[in-house]
Design a protein that fits this description.
Length: about 130
């Protein structure tokens, strides 16, 4: 696997979810069986903005050749995705999310495994 492919996969995941949470936060929350109010919708929109930023970052970084820049990007995304995985699992274990929440767990797990691979198993290779 090439790092650029993982970054493109991350873009494909992050941008649609980000746009969904930005433009239709209540509908996105309802997919997960989470009720919202205006404050929760606003927080979901902030989450959407962050996902859009990640999607844009991963898209623009897909062809970065500098190994130090690659490592910094991989480290930041790995840390964020580990935290996201923990939060997603907590949401599932606590019963806050419905079965669709497992999709979020799986997506974060795939990203953690991918970035972990490039950080620890295949350093310096694009």
């Amino acid at each position: 696997m090439k790092l650029s492919n993982l970054l493109i996969f991350n873009t494909i995941v992050a941008l649609p979810f980000g746009l969904g949470f930005l433009l239709a936060p209540g509908a996105m929350a309802n997919l997960y069986d989470v009720s919202t109010d205006p404050a929760a919708n606003l927080i979901a929109q902030f989450f959407g903005v962050s996902l859009i930023a990640i999607g844009l970052l991963t898209w623009f970084a897909r062809n970065v050749a500098d190994s130090k820049a690659q490592k910094a990007i991989i480290q930041a995304l790995l840390i964020a995705d580990v935290l996201g995985l923990i939060v997603a699992v907590m949401g599932m274990v606590s019963g806050v999310l419905n079965t669709l929440g497992w999709l979020t767990v799986v997506l974060y797990l795939l990203l953690v495994l991918g970035y972990g691979y490039f950080l620890f198993m295949k350093p310096g290779k694009s």
